[in-house]
Design goal:
Blueprint lengths: L2 H13 L4 H8 L3 H10 L1 H18 L4 H21 L7 H18 L15 H16 L5 H37 L1
Helix pairs in contact: 1-4, 2-3, 5-6, 7-8
């Protein structure tokens, strides 16, 4: 095997999670070579590992869109079964239980299409209040998940805190200038 082919194989084997011992035996190289190549090729190994994970996610339909579609299809099947169910033969509480669980799971996958408030370059208190109001409206409309709302409100609160800090500092500097001018 040529040196470049050996390194390529090393990258593939490390991305698969193989040990230095296994690789050293398979490629007929020393463990110290494995260690130095690991440091040298760390980014390539990480990229290949990520590509492999992405392929797994895709092959097992683990994308958000696929999960939403699957949950929606299953919920539709449950609704159809509930609509045509002879309640004397099928325990309705069982189907109702499934319906509630799938509806909740589907809600958990929803991320609204509403975009967050876009701040201008000149940040002021009015703009921060506008952003909070926008977030509140999107929460009420069900356009954001609780997790997303929590993240956005944390960012907005931190912006407000930073703005307050800058304003207080400016006022202190002004007071110090006035007091310093009198002394």
């Amino acid at each position: 095997m040529k040196p470049q082919e050996t390194k390529t194989e090393f990258i593939r084997l490390r991305a698969e999670g193989r040990s230095y011992s296994y690789i050293a035996d398979k490629l007929h190289i020393s463990k110290s070579t494995c260690s130095s190549w690991e440091a040298e090729l760390k980014e390539a190994i990480a990229e290949l590992r990520q590509e492999q994970l992405n392929e797994l996610y895709s092959s097992y339909a683990m994308t958000k869109e696929a999960r939403i579609k699957k949950l929606g299809d299953t919920l539709e099947s449950i609704n159809t079964a509930l609509d045509g169910a002879d309640l004397s033969e099928i325990p309705p509480e069982k189907l109702l239980d499934f319906k509630l669980k799938y509806t909740e799971a589907l809600k958990g996958e929803y991320t609204g299409s509403g975009t967050p408030y876009q701040f201008t370059d000149r940040l002021d208190p009015k703009e921060i209040v506008t952003a909070l109001g926008d977030l509140l409206n999107r929460i009420r409309a069900g356009e954001v998940t609780a997790e997303q709302a929590n993240r956005e409100s944390t960012v907005i609160a931190n912006l407000l805190k930073a703005y307050d800090t800058v304003e207080v500092k400016a006022k202190l500097d002004a007071l110090e200038a006035i007091i310093g001018g009198r002394a």
